[in-house]
Every structure is written in structure tokens, then in C-alpha cells.
Amino acid sequence: MNFVEKLLTASRSNQSLLCIGLDPDPELMPGIDVFQFNKEIIDATSDLVCAYKPNLAFYEALGIDGLKAMSKTIAHIPDSIPVIGDAKRGDIASSSKAYARALFDTFGFDAVTLNPYMGYDSIAPFIDYTDKGIFILCKTSNPSASDFQELPSLEPAPGTGTIPLFERVALKAVAWNTRGNIGLVVGATYPRQLRRIRELCPEMPLIIPGIGTQGGDVAATVRYGVDANREKAIINSSRQIIYASKESDSALAARREALKLRDLINHHLETMR
Amino acid sequence: MNFVEKLLTASRSNQSLLCIGLDPDPELMPGIDVFQFNKEIIDATSDLVCAYKPNLAFYEALGIDGLKAMSKTIAHIPDSIPVIGDAKRGDIASSSKAYARALFDTFGFDAVTLNPYMGYDSIAPFIDYTDKGIFILCKTSNPSASDFQELPSLEPAPGTGTIPLFERVALKAVAWNTRGNIGLVVGATYPRQLRRIRELCPEMPLIIPGIGTQGGDVAATVRYGVDANREKAIINSSRQIIYASKESDSALAARREALKLRDLINHHLETMR
After folding, report:
1. What value does the mean pLDDT of chain B take?
2. d(CA B91, CA A87)
3. Which residue of B29, B112, B139, B142 is the best one to mutate when testing the A interface, meaning the one whose CB has the most A CBs within 10 A?
4. Nearest to B117 among A91, A105, A115 (CB)
5. Interface mutation vs chain B, best among A62, A89, A92, most B CBs within 10 Å
6. What is the Cα–Cα distance from A233 to A208, expressed in whole angstroms?
7. Could A151 and B144 be called an inter-chain contact, meaning their C-beta atoms sit closer than 8 Å?
8. How many Å apart are CA A19 and CA A50, to the nearest integer?
9. Residue in A closest to B103 by C-alpha
10. What's the gap in Å between the CA of B55 and the closest CA on chain A?
11. What residues make up the domain containing B63?
């Protein structure tokens, strides 16, 4: 089963487009064992999600122990739920191959996020893993996303018109997607751009972070993010769920928030009928 | 001592613009202990370089053991030689802060490489480490660098002219460099662009990979890469040096190659007088 099949199977089985970001921030949970924290969240929510998405930054910040906790977390997630390594890597040649090995073979992620700035050959070693998923940053959810991603860009050949850089990235991703394993990352905080990207890439799975704390609107995210079958949107929430409570009932609170958000997403899907 | 001071001190003391990339590739050295391999290279070359640059991809590909070897390698490099973590990270908000903690506090690099695609707020947490160095990918050395980096880009405001994306990145880097700790990564394989970037950023340190295996010309790299004092070019070579020999004399062979390359660079510096 390749990544998209695995994603759709989990999504249909759990009736969910919700992805939970497993981003353990020690500033928000001093003294808590990271794996134990994740384990409780996973055990409390694995029937409610289409995927989990650990962001590697939080594990690397804890050094070797953090990476051990990440490995244990990946191993603990049920096989039926895809695990997306939010790594945002990008490098070239043998370094890019080494990152693909690290993320897919060594850590065992089902999919990863990648940065497009270095171009095709930085992505190619990942594409060769045809059963895995690749999500290329297109329009990110942060305020400074516009610094470069919105710059009006021309094709090198003159006369082909001006579109924002993120649309060039989307078009390249379509051209590169010969193995059917490429998707994009698009921030919920930019609904107009999300709509445009879905037009350009009608078939691709999209990871959509930025609802909740960052302010992305759930209704617009659902409406503009899903494909024609009302699937393939991976709507991510991290801290709104995993830090729903800072008390010892954090897993229960996480379940409550996840359920609420999954059902809200499904409610907006219903209104699209 | 901040990063630039540390770099200049090492560079002057060793009369060297050479940086050695510590990129242990198990395909090229099956069965060899990574730390031991690095240790021998470092012991044989630390009087010949201005910096070392481990690329994290190769260590991550080896999992927890690889990252332990990376930590030991960093600790083994003499304090007088700056260590640049070639991480090419880029993320936002709390994730970006976590990467800064991981690379500067947890692993202890003196400087890191970062990807600009996500814009200012992805760089800001690193800038706050005023004693550390930050190298933003500008024009990378790989063939596909042109996919996006060469796209003619306009400022959002009309009428401000068209320049390639990588020049927009260079100009933003100048604008962001309020703490004096930003540099750029520019591939030796694109000497025209290197020259242009040095014009735009006369004061910044530049990491310049791409000589040797990738074909960048040393003479042009030196001529266009250095600043007005003929400094602040960090000319990187990895496999040409660390895999100069695959036999047990690899450290000696590495020293021979490093000496040759350092002296060749210095020869080209001399001709600029």
C-alpha cells in the first residue's frame, strides 16, 4: 500500500481529515517524559485522525534523548495511521540521498515535508521512494511567508506571464509528480492561495497547518482544501490539541479537542454536499 | 568572541580560506567508525583550515549512533576552529526556535546554514543568537538551483525592476543583518552569480561549496568570493579531501589534499595583489 492509499484508508476508517502535530515543547511541559506524553495522546486519539505529524525540531532540541523518544513515538503509532515527518529538509546530491535514508529508512516515516528552494535534484532522491509521501512547502502559514513566496515571478522565457513564486512551486510539483507521491504544504492562514493551489493541483494531498492558534478558518480550509471527492486534505492541529490541558488529564483533554475539531471539519464537509 | 571574529582568527592563524566538509558517507567507507574517521581527518588538518562543516544529513542517516558520532566530532574539533552545522533548516515560530536551540545549544555549532523560503520569521530566532553565525542559502551549487533561484522576480510594488530570486534573497539578508551575524551560501559552480552576490553583500562571510567534484573553478571562486580584505570566503571541499584515499592512509592523504588546496587558494589570493 503506498502513502496515498494508506492516508485514504485511515481517513475513511476514522472519518477524519484531522492530523495531530506531535510537537512536544519542553517550555510547555517541563519535566514530562516526551515519549510518555506522546503515547498518551496517541492512545487517546488514534481513532480520530488521518495522520500524525511529529515536527523534528522539537525532538532535535532535546538531543539524543529527544530522537530516541521520536523513534519510540513512531513505533507506537498504530500501523494503520500514516506518520508524517515534518522535517522541511532540502539538500543536494549525496546529502539529499542521506536525508531520504534518514527519514524513510532509519526513522521510518511514511511521508516527509521538504523545502523546494534548491530545486528538482534536491527532491529527486525522495521521489524514488515510490511508496512514501513527499510534501513540498508551497505557501506556508507564517506571516513572513510572503517575503519570497508571494514575489511575482516570471518564467525565464519571456512573455509567459507573472505569477507568485508559490504558484511556480505548485506547477513544478505537478510536473515532478510522475510517481504520484508528491503533495504540498499550504497554510490555512491563506485561504485565497489555498483555493488557487487546489485548482492547480486537483489530485494532490495537501497538508494544511495554521488553524487554531495561528488563526486559520476551519470552514474555508475545508471548502478550499479538499479534492473533488472531499478528501486528501490533511488538516493539522498541534498545540490546540496536545496542550488542551496542562494538567494531568492532558490525554483526555486532547481527545475532547480532537473529537471537536474532527467533527467540526466533518460538519463543514457536510455543508458542501 | 562572536562567530565572524572566531572565523577571522582561525583563518588568519592558519592562513587559510579552506573549510573541510565532514560528510561521512557509509557507501564510501563501509564498516568504518564515523567518529574515528572524523577524528583522524581533524587531527591531520586542523592547522590548515578556517572551519569544519559537518552536514547533518550523513549523521542522521546513521540514526542515534550517527548523531552521537556527530556530537563527539564537534567536541573533538579544537576550540579555535569554528564548526558550521550544515543543516539547511527552515521552520516557523516555536519550531524555528526549537531548531535554533537544537543546533546552537544542544549540538553546540558555532554557525548553521538555513533555507530562506519561509521568510524572515523563520530566520529570526537564529539571529537572536548574536554570537553565532547564520548562513542563508542564496545560490546553491547544484544543477537544479536554477529551478527557482534564477526566476526573474519583481518586488510586490510595481515598477521596481526584475532581478533573479537569489538576488532578492541576498538583498533581504542585507536588510535582516542588523546584528552582523548573517552570511550566505553561494555555489562555486556559478561564478557570475558569486560575483554579483559579493557586490550586493560586500561585508558578509560567504560559504562557497562546489569546487572539486562539482567542478567549480578555484581561481574564479577566490577572485569573486573574497571581500575587500581578501577574507570572509569559506571555500568548502568535502569528498575531494576526506576521500582522497580509501586506504588506511586516509588521514595522510586528506592532509596532502587539504594542504594542496589551501595553498592553491592562497596562490590565487597572491595574484590578486
Report:
1. 95
2. 9
3. B142
4. A115
5. A92
6. 7
7. no
8. 6
9. A61
10. 7
11. 3-270
E-strand spans in A90-147?
Answer: 111-114, 133-139
pTM check: above 0.90 = yes
Per-residue model confidence as pLDDT tens digits over B142-162: 999 999 999 999 876 666 689
Does the pLDDT of residue B29 top 90, yes or no? no
Mean pLDDT throughout A65-77? 98
Q: Which residues of A87-110 are buried (b: 16+ CB within 10 A; e: fewer)?
A: bbbbbbbbbbbbbbbbbbebbebb
Task: Count chain A–chain B contacts defined by CB atoms under 8 A.
Answer: 204
Contact residues for B268 (Cβ-Cβ < 8 A; gap 6+): B218, B219, B222, B223
pLDDT band at A148 (very low <50, low <70, confident <90, very high): very high
Measured between alpha carbons, how far is B58 from B71 in angstroms, rounded to an integer?
A: 13
Q: What is the CATH number of the domain that holds B220?
A: 3.20.20.70
Closest approach of chain A CAs to the CA of B273, in angstroms? 35
Percent of chain B at pLDDT > 70 equals: 98
Report CB contact under 8 Å: B118, A169: no
Number of domains in chain A: 1
Residue A156 reports pLDDT greater than 80: no
Cell for A160? 509567459
Side chain identity at B53, as an amino acid letter? K
